[in-house]
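Q: My labmate handed me this sequence with no annotations at all. I'd like to see what the chain might look like in three dimensions before we decide whether it's worth expressing. Could you predict it?
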Amino acid sequence: MQPKRCETGVRQMPAAVQYVDPNSKLRDTHLNVTISEERKKRKEEYDKSRKYYEGDQKHFLSKKAGEPDDNVIINVTRMAIDRTQTFLFPQMPALELAPAETGATKEEKWVRAAWEFNGGVLFLQDCILNGSLSGHNYVRVLPLEKGELYPRLVNLDPTGVFTYWQADDIDTVLWHEVTWDVMEDEVNNVLTEYLQDIVHIKAEQRWEIHQYKRLSGTQWVEQEEFFQRWDFKFGPIIDWKHLPDPNRFYGKSETDHLPLQDKLNLVVSENARINRYHSSPKTVGTGIKPGDIKDTGIDDFWSTENEKAQIYNLEMKSNQAFAQNLAEFMYDTYLAESRVVLLRGEVKDFQRVTNAGVRTVFMDMLSKNMILRRLYAIGIQKITRAMGMVSGMGLEIIPDVIYPDPLPVDDAELVNINAIERSMGVVSRETISEKRGYIWTDELTRMEQEAELEIFAAPEETEEPADSEPAQSDT
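A: Here is what I predict for the chain of 475 residues:
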C-alpha cells in the first residue's frame, strides 16, 4: 500500500493491490507514514468544519472579568452551506423510469415510496450537509428486514469510513473500513473498538463483510458470527464526491475558506471593541483642576469659577468606514469563493427583472449547482439501484433524476413567449403543453370531452317570427 500525497501535504487514503488483514503491519504503515494518522487528520478536519458550521469559531479578543465580550461571529460558513443545500434540494427530485406522458409505472411508484420511507428530501439534505463538511458521502443500504417493504438507508458519519482503492485505478474500491467504539465497561473505563471490512471479491462479482473486535491496544479478533455474504456486484456502501477533486478519491468540501472566515471575525470584533471604547464622546477639561468643578445638581450641569477653563467633548474623527468596508469586502469574497449568491434588496427591487436577468445574477451559483446535481444524481441512482436489488425486485432500477428549478419564474413571461412562438407558427401546441409541464395526451382528451358538454356548446340561433298583419278585432 502507498499513501497518496497532495500538494498541501495532506494524504488522501492508501492505495493497495489486494485486501490486507487488519492485524497486518502493512495495513497501517508504509514508508514511515501511518494510515491511522491520516484517519485522525481527516476526523480533525471534519470536526473543525462542523464546529465552524455550528458557530463554534475562534475568539480573537481577550475578555477581562466584568467586561462585555467584544468578539463577533458572522457565520458566513453556515450561510454558504445552507444556501447551497437548499438550492440543490428545495424539494425531492422526481425519479422517472419512463416518459412522463406514459404515467407512473409500478417500479416508479415503488422507487418513490422507498425514498419517502427513508425520509425523502430530508435524507438528501443530511447527505449534502455531510458532503459539504467532509467532501464525501457514504450511505449504507441495509438488507430488507422481515415485514418491511423497503430497505433502510443509513447516512454514515464520513469520519467513520475509510476506503482503500486500487493502486492503478483510483475509482476502483478494494474495501471499505468502518470503525466505531463502544464503552462496554464504564466501571473500569474500558473502551471496545469495532472494525468492519466490506471487501470486494472482484473475481466473483460480490462482496464480503468481516467484523472484528478488540480492546484498546490488543489484536483484532474476527467475530465470525457476523460474517455476511453480499451477493451483488455493488457493495452495501454507496459513496460519491460532494465536489470534484481530480486524481483524488475524496471530493472537495465547502470549508476551504475558513481562514477568511477567521479574518472577517477578527476585523468585525476589533471594530466592535473600538466602538465600545470610543463611540461615546469623552469630556475633556483644560486649564482646570478636578476640584474646581462643581455639580450644581441641575440636570448634571457643571460650573467653575476659573475663567480660563475650557471644557469640551472629544469625539472620534473617523466613523470606522474603512473597517466596515474591509469586513464587507471579506464577506463578499467568502461568498464569491463559495460560489453562493445572496441578493441585497427587497422584493420590489426585482419586480421588473426578467427571468433571464435573475438567472444572470445567479449564473455562478447555477453553474456550481449543475455540478452538484450531476454528482448527487450519481449517488441517488446508485442507491436506488441497490434498493431495488436487495428488495428482491430483480431489476437494476436506474432512474432519471429530474431536479426542480431552484429559482422563481415569472409564468406570465413564459406564457407570452409561448403565445408569440405559436402565432409565428414555429412550435406546436403539444410542445408548448409539454414545456409547461402538462401531459399532452391527457389534456387533448379532456379538451375533446369538454367540447361535447352542453355548457361549453355555442348557443343556437333562433329564427325571428315573420311579420304578420295585426289581428282584426270583431269590434
